[in-house]
Design goal:
The chain is an alpha+beta fold and 210 residues long. It is 42% helix and 13% strand. It contains 5 helices and 4 strands, in the order αβαααβββα. Helix 3 (79-87) packs antiparallel against helix 4 (96-115) and helix 4 (96-115) runs parallel beside helix 5 (159-198). The longest helix has 40 residues, at 159-198. It is globular. The termini are far apart.
Length: 210
């Protein structure tokens, strides 16, 4: 009976969350290196839950290789739905193939947020029993706007799995932000080089007498 109730919680619980991602006012990225210190923190439960339940428009789940497991049914396309399954992987008795599929989806979800212009980093704010400081924080890092989700773990005794979820998600976000930083630096360098080239006086060649 407990197992049935738990499975129902997996599918019904996330549906009660708000279905729209509420975007708060963000500090604007600029060229000042001091931008790294800028941040805004929102602790409102409605916005916190809305982000957990938000599906990026560019996210496409890999249905072709999705394992045929009852606990993986439904739309697993949000931070909340994927994190919940991954946290309870031991109780759900997921095999290696099913875990690998979830991990690929986690990385793809992080990429989808980045592609929408809202890169996200998830940081632990507390566990299943004690949750303090949860909320959303907006920062500027390397002239890029970053949303930090201060997240409370959802499964007692499963911190090792939830840590792994954060590692996969954040590693993807960080790699994409690093690539964008490099691309912007190269673009700026190219513009500077072109500008200097246009403004460099051309040497006047003297005509040789015959």
């Amino acid at each position: 009976m407990k197992k049935i109730a738990f499975i129902l919680l997996l599918f019904v619980g996330p549906m009660s969350w708000a279905q729209q991602f509420i975007v708060t006012e963000k500090p604007k990225a600029g060229n000042n290196q001091n931008d790294k210190t800028q941040s805004t923190l929102v602790t409102d439960d409605k916005e916190y839950n809305a982000l957990l339940a938000y599906k990026p428009k560019s996210f496409v789940s890999d249905l072709k290789s999705k394992p045929e497991n009852q606990v993986l049914l439904g739309d697993l396309n949000t931070i909340g739905s994927l994190e919940l399954r991954y946290a309870y992987r031991e109780q759900l008795k997921l095999n290696e193939s099913e875990i690998n599929w979830l991990e690929n989806e986690i990385a793809k979800l992080a990429a989808a947020f980045f592609n929408e212009g809202t890169p996200i980093r998830i940081e632990r704010a507390g566990d299943y029993v004690t949750c303090t400081g949860k909320g959303l924080e907006t920062k500027i890092e390397d002239n890029q706007t970053l949303t930090v989700l201060h997240f409370c773990y959802v499964c007692a005794g499963a911190a090792i799995y939830e840590d792994r979820f954060l590692e996969i998600f954040n590693k993807k976000t960080e790699s994409l932000m690093a690539a964008k930083k490099l691309a912007l630096a190269n673009k700026t360098k190219k513009k500077t080089t072109n500008y200097r080239g246009k403004n460099t006086p051309k040497k006047v060649q003297k005509k040789r007498k015959i």
